[in-house]
Amino acid sequence: MTEILTIAVSKGRILQESLPLLAQAGIVPVEDPDRSRRLILPTGRAGVRLVIIRATDVPTYVQYGAADLGITGKDVILEHGGAGLYEPLDLGIARCRMMVAGLPDAAREPGIRLRVATKYVASTRRHFAAQGRQVEIIKLYGSMELAPLVGLAHCIVDLVDTGGTLKANGLVPLELVAEISSRVIVNKAAMKMKHDRVKALLRELEAAARPGDRDRRSRRCAGAGEGL
Ligand code: ATP
Ligand code: PRP
């Protein structure tokens, strides 16, 4: 009997960008994940199923072996800490930067204890500790850009891609914390027990994620669009 491989994929933009890569490995969910209410989706590849969950839950499912592999952002892995996981592959999708940002004159006053609003508490603490700066961290769950505007914090640590959200709120990027992209993570026990299947899948996803393959894929998509 084929052993089952369970892959946990982050909902939202990572799922959208992962689906074409997974499809190249024959992993196509049997139902459209955006419409389906099923939490476990079988796929067109024998013995491979997807669970589609919140980004922040992916490392937890993989750490405890509820999923053998996962696809999630480096930001989420940094916060989780990586216990029980291998991180063998950078898919190069959902790229952005984790940055300190604030009002243009933020945090320049010497002597003040900086208040930083973020959902990335661990990464923020590490970033400022590496500079020998003690900061007060205020945990938020979203819309971080609001915090400096209403005096909740001097600055924020959040993800920046185009910079459009910062700009729309009169904020500027101040310091780079980390370059972010989506990674494949693997449960340590699954890497041993299901070694051949996991390795084969990683090789296929690596090939799909190579820049040349990505370019060819997007040219195919553009071509398909022109034909409509
Ligand atoms: P949740 O709903 O679980 O809180 P979320 O709203 O942060 O998650 P998404 O916005 O889909 O969910 O982001 C998921 C992941 O996508 C992030 O963890 C990060 O790795 C990546 N990401 C987030 N924002 C951007 C962005 N602007 N550009 C590129 N990648 C991003
Ligand atoms: C992310 C992030 C920033 C924004 C940055 O938010 O939290 O707010 O993207 O992208 P930009 O630099 O291209 O403007 P997202 O769009 O995921 O919204 P949410 O976190 O509020 O769900």
What does it look like?
- The protein is 36% helix and 27% strand.
- With 228 residues, it is of the alpha/beta class.
- It folds into two domains: 5-94 and 181-213, D-Maltodextrin-Binding Protein, domain 2; 97-178, Periplasmic binding protein-like II (D-Maltodextrin-Binding Protein, domain 2, 3-Layer(aba) Sandwich).
- A six-stranded mixed β-sheet has the order 2-3-1-4-11-5. A five-stranded mixed β-sheet has the order 8-7-9-6-10.
- Adenosine-5'-triphosphate binds at residues 10, 12-14, 54-56, 73, 75-76, 94, 96, 159, 161, 180.
- Residues 142, 158-165 line the site of 1-O-pyrophosphono-5-O-phosphono-alpha-D-ribofuranose.
Topology:
Layout: E1 5-10, H1 13-24, E2 40-42, E3 48-53, H2 58-63, E4 69-73, H3 74-80, E5 85-90, E6 96-102, E7 115-118, H4 121-130, E8 136-139, H5 146-149, E9 155-160, H6 164-168, E10 172-180, E11 182-187, H7 188-193, H8 195-209, H9 211-226
Parallel strand pairs: 1-3, 1-4, 7-8, 7-9
Antiparallel strand pairs: 2-3, 4-11, 5-11, 6-9, 6-10
CATH topology of the largest domain: D-Maltodextrin-Binding Protein, domain 2
For the record, what CATH class of the largest domain applies? Alpha Beta
CATH architecture of the largest domain, by name, is: 3-Layer(aba) Sandwich
Strand content: 25-35%
Shape: elongated
Number of domains: 2
Distinct helical segment count: 9
Question: Strands of the largest sheet, in order across it?
Answer: 2-3-1-4-11-5
Find the structural class using helix and strand composition.
alpha/beta
How is the main sheet built?
A: 6 strands, mixed
- Termini gap: 43 Å
Look at the structure and name the CATH superfamily of the largest domain. Answer: Periplasmic binding protein-like II
Measured on Cα atoms, how large is the radius of gyration? Answer: 20 Å
Order of helices and strands: EHEEHEHEEEHEHEHEEHHH
